[in-house]
From TrEMBL:
This is Transporter. InterPro entries: FApF. It comes from Oxynema aestuarii AP17.
Amino acid sequence: MKSMKSRLWPIAPSVLAILTGVIAGLGISKGAIAADHLNLEEGLPAEVEDAYPLGFGGFEFQGVFHYDRVEGEDIFTLDPRLEWGFARNWQAKLSVPVVLGSEENDIGDISAEVFYNFNTETLSTPAIALSASADFPTGSDSEGIDPTLKLLVTKSIGTGNNLDRLHLNLGWTYNSEQQDNERQNALSVALGYSRRLGSETILVSDIVFEQEKEEDAEIYLIELGVRHQLSPLNVLAIGAGVGLGEESPDLRITAGFQQSF
């Protein structure tokens, strides 16, 4: 198998061109909003997200690395993302994943998402948000634009300084170009828990269920990780997960960072 560097090199210019074009188009302001290590981002370090968007006017670059061991194969995914708090309680995200593996070396499906937070939590009411995204068929063997809707709920538990919180994500994806042996509708559920381990570090854990596009293929995953704020503008994340069931990854390792501008 080729080295990871040699596989990535032909793809990297395309990814950088896409992200650079978006940055130029948005016209990023010079003022920066501090990164918030308490807010949970997908894959940093676990799949579960909280119900809060990036702050109004904020702009963030995220780099996420996944290693999955699946049925004896090593699959690497690099997922650079851009997030923009374009209005109060609103957030936009663009993701351009790169997949590397035993037989794969390609840009994945580009994803664009909008996220809206309906409310902050109260003593009796959780924070609730809704996201809508679309995956565009830029990867090999991809067809059609597949939309996803996700409901996100976050609620604090207890009154201590550790900020214990529960998170629930419910997702639905529509397969617009259903092929033989594929689902047209796929569901996902993530139940997570987070708490402070100190002023700059939080612990994140979750249980994930996800229906794959292939019929009868389902993923069950248990994950644990930490998010650590290195500086007001930088957050690092690292985590690991194990799969339950034949279609699930035997092992998942995740590492990533957030850079606010």
